[in-house]
Design goal:
The complex is a heterodimer of chains A (125) and B (378).
Chain A: E1 2-5, H1 13-26, E2 35-36, H2 39-46, H3 50-62, E3 66-69, E4 73-76, H4 85-104, H5 109-123
Antiparallel strand pairs in A: 2-4, 3-4
Helix pairs in contact in A: 1-3, 2-3
Chain B: H1 2-23, H2 25-28, E1 33-34, E2 37-38, H3 41-44, H4 47-76, H5 81-108, E3 118-121, H6 131-154, E4 161-166, E5 172-177, H7 180-205, E6 212-213, H8 216-257, H9 265-288, E7 304-305, E8 315-316, E9 320-321, E10 330-332, E11 339-341, H10 346-368
Antiparallel strand pairs in B: 1-2, 4-5, 6-7, 8-9, 10-11
Helix pairs in contact in B: 1-5, 1-9, 4-5, 6-7, 6-8, 7-8, 7-10, 8-9
Classes of the chains: A mainly alpha (125), B mainly alpha (378).
């Protein structure tokens, strides 16, 4: 698969990289155990600074999508079996905030349900 | 007579390699690139782009022909052959740059606006087999060490005058007073030239990838194959260079010691092999792969170029890539066959300067070493 950076988008380059890798992991294009390109290689191919790629990988590691190893590179990790209760509560609040914003932006509850169902179907493969 | 023959051969090779590789540019260039400018895939195929290419081809071919005619005229009016060759070479160089710049500035009017997307394959980059590039590195080290050790061991036994230049027949035709510089210059050059070629081969194997999107799979595959072939080709040049120079270094000492009359026949065979390999290899790479795998990536369909290769703001005159954010050392050329360096990367600039220093050092020490053309043994 290919990762793309649109330079004229407002979203920072590291966010674009992280978001695309997250999507690829979520929909199964990147399986657990896949090894991602090294920081130098990916930065070189994309023509961006080392720090941009390193920051994207750090964000992904903080979010539990990848594991950064000293020698074997960046590896996609298997989703956790069970989230701790405090993390679960935080995610639920985030989801609620997002749904509220979408509702406020004019998306009716019927469409919100359809969107979330679609997303769940993608996650379930 | 011998040196005249060598000059004419050199002229021929230069015309075939440089002129020939320039004239086939339109057939090997990546879709979307026109004389160092990214014009976009649609305009690249348009009437204006074709007109620029056609006029450039005619102008370049005519000026190369003019160079040959001028050289023939110089020789015809009893001018020295070297002057004729010089006139032809200078004409070709001026014509090459002149016609390129003319076409480049024309192409700028068609330049694609905006910044292209950055794209990269999200799989770990496998630079292909590094076997040959690393082998060339090892051979450069061994060859250089042999040359240095042989000269060092026999330094004290060498006569007051040592051979420092050989004619086409392989016999020495110039001598210099024995000094550390005159004896060790060739072995040092052997080591440095071999290492320089090998390092270029290794870096080429790891050069930046520039892909199309969509259709990236075919594009990535084409580029990986081109990159591997180019790296192996350079490694081959490095191995031949080291072998040739090691032989030259050792036989220069042996000739000085009176153990050999000059260079062995193997040396001239190696020179011929090097010429055939360099010319044949360049043409093979150009026609088989095209620049960056352009001839293979046609399967990539309507994909557009991405990354620095498509970013006009990061190229000066379509020749110098300058991107301070990009950690790449070697990047694909926009015009010509092979790779160039990222002038925005201090490590790449340091490598380039080191290479220039090596070449300048060899040339300067060659020019400043006092030489005599009288055989001290006669």
């Amino acid at each position: 698969m290919v990762i793309l950076i649109e330079r004229d988008r407002a979203e920072a380059a590291y966010e674009q990289i992280a978001a695309q890798i997250r999507s690829a992991i979520a929909d199964g294009r990147l399986a657990a155990g896949s090894v991602l390109p090294g920081v130098r290689g990916l930065a070189s191919d994309l023509g961006v600074n080392f720090n941009t790629v390193a920051r994207a990988y750090r964000v992904l590691e903080d979010q539990g999508f990848v594991r950064i190893r000293e020698r074997s590179g960046v590896e996609v990790v298997t989703p956790a079996r069970q989230a701790p209760p405090e993390a679960r509560g935080a995610f639920e609040r985030e989801l609620w905030e997002l749904l509220v914003r979408m509702r406020q932006a004019g998306i009716p509850p019927r469409d919100l349900r359809r969107v979330t169902d679609d997303c769940l179907r993608r996650l379930e493969g | 007579m011998e040196s005249n023959l060598a000059l004419v051969v050199a002229l021929f090779v230069q015309l075939v390699v440089v002129g020939g590789l320039l004239l086939i540019q339109p057939f090997i260039v990546r879709r979307g690139l026109l004389f160092g400018v990214y014009v976009g895939e649609e305009r690249w195929d348009g009437d204006e782009a074709r007109s620029i290419t056609r006029r450039w081809t005619v102008a370049l071919a005519a000026s190369m022909g003019l160079g040959l005619v001028l050289a023939a005229l110089v020789v015809a009016i009893d001018g020295p052959v070297p002057l004729g060759v010089l006139v032809s070479v200078v004409t070709q160089i001026v014509a090459s740059y002149g016609t390129y710049l003319w076409a480049h500035f024309r192409a700028r009017r068609l330049a694609a606006p905006g910044a292209p997307a950055g794209a990269a394959a999200l799989v770990a980059d496998k630079p292909g087999s590094l076997l040959l590039p690393l082998a060339s590195l090892a051979i450069a080290g061994v060859g250089g060490a042999i040359a240095l050790a042989y000269a060092w061991m026999h330094y004290a036994a060498l006569p007051a005058q040592v051979p420092t230049h050989f004619g086409v027949s392989g016999r020495p035709d110039a001598w210099s007073p024995r000094s550390f510089g005159s004896v060790m210059m060739l072995p040092v050059a052997t080591l440095l030239m071999g290492l320089a070629m090998a390092v270029m081969a290794v870096l080429t194997a790891r050069a930046k990838r520039a892909i199309r999107h969509p259709g990236s799979a075919a594009s990535i595959d084409a580029q990986l194959r081109f990159r591997r072939a180019m790296a192996n080709f350079l490694a081959g040049v490095g191995i031949l260079t080291t072998t040739m120079l090691t032989l030259l270094s050792v036989y220069a000492v042996r000739t000085g010691l009176g153990l050999a009359p000059g260079l062995p026949g193997t040396f001239m065979a190696l020179v011929a092999a090097m010429l055939v390999y360099a010319v044949g290899g360049s043409l093979y790479l150009a026609f088989r792969y095209g620049q960056g795998g352009a001839r293979l990536e046609r399967k990539a369909g309507s994909g557009v170029l991405t990354n620095g290769l498509a970013d006009n703001s990061q190229w000066v005159l379509g020749v110098f890539y300058v991107n301070r954010d990009d950690p790449s050392i070697f990047v694909e050329k926009r015009f010509g066959l092979g790779y160039t360096i990222n002038f925005g990367n201090p490590r790449a600039v340091a490598l380039f300067v080191a290479l220039l220093v090596v070449i300048a050092g060899i040339v300067i020490s060659g020019l400043t070493t006092p030489q005599t053309h009288l055989n001290p043994f006669e």
